[in-house]
Specification:
CHP02453, alpha+beta, 13 helices, 465 residues, TIGR02453 family protein, single chain, two-stranded antiparallel sheet
Amino acid sequence: MAPSKSPRTPRASRGSAPAAGSSNRPSRKSTSAAGSPLTPVKTPDTLKGKSSPYFKGRATASPSKGRVSAKVQANGNGKAAAKRGKAKKDPADVTGLTSTEEEDSSDSDAASEDDFAPSSAGGNAGGEEDEDEDMDEDEEDEDESDVDSDDLDGGGSKSKRKRGTPKKGSATKKVKVESGKKGKVAGKTRVDGFEDDEEDDMEVELEEGQEVAGRIYPAPKTGQVPPGRISQNTLNFLKNMQIPERNDRDWFRSHEPAFRQAEKEWQAFVGLVQLKMHEADSQVPILPPKDLIHRIYRDVRFSSDKTPYKRSFSLSTSRSGRKGVFAGYHLSLCPNDKSILAAGVWCPAKTEMQTIRHHLLNTPERFRDVIGSEAFVDMFGPASPGKKGERRNVFGHEDALKVAPKGVDKGHKDIDLLKLRSVAVVKHFTDEEVLDLDFQETVKNVVNVMTPFVHLLNDFISLPP
């Protein structure tokens, strides 16, 4: 009689429901009723590398972070697994279960996961060697992809480099920064407060890939004045604009702090001086300084002079503001005793010019009374043409006609007025007057004399002939 065999516990079918408290995913480890472990099932070659819940550690979703995070999840060891590199492989990794699934399965099974010891059978050993080779190749790929990574430095920790400090291993070099165009400017023209062209050259350290773009000079720290006054620093900056070698974009960019300081001072002056002008001429409106000030940048599109910047600060105002057809006032701040305050109309349009000439033909006495008044003559000179090229009163402008206008006899008694193209007067100021504490009052007194002249021209322009 054949010996009876001990009954064996049948394997659970794949369609059977899992036991209570166990993981929903089928476990690849089975135990007998007595608790002895059985031989684990070999992972099929066709499932290697697949994105299956049984092989999360083999997923390669992303080239760097994805693989590292997937391997850490399969090992269940957090950041320590990423730091070790090629760590010793845990035999339990062949199950593909995460740490959470391992805890769930250990609660339901009689034996613990830690007690599981794989058999040393030839087939199983070969499968484990294949797994080790694949895992080693993945880890080598991770090492290659993480060499230049900013996220993994020194075992996964980020090291921040302070701004301005060179990178480790990066080459630095010293270069000499020249102070300016010495050969062209230094020794020929010297402006107080702008002796930077005579300074010694300086050396700076540059990292690899860096280059010197330019040198920025600070604004003057002395010579400041209260708002409403003009300082010597502003005149000094404008003196540099009159030097051709310095009136370029490179020099202007390197001295932009000085320009911003002078511009701010000029804006404060304009905001207060227009109040004085409004007291003298009530037709002048009070506007924000930016609506009166002209930009320092020149329009060189149709000019043979390609100098990029103007040589002065200026403002214009009239009964219609800075722009319009009406006669108004123009204040220009220019060093070397070239500052001016002008009033009238400059090169008016054809319609306005015809209207003014029509009134001069019909009522020339009214105009001559204004330009011949005592205060007007004392400030602007006699009301008659002077020598050729001499500018006095309303005469002597370069755009005046050489011959009589069309339809007018060249022997007309008011031919000197009818030849005028620009109808304007100009008052000059010295640098000493500009820097004076009472310069705003000086401007107001000049506008008082100019006001009747400006109002008369506006009547000529606005009233029908």
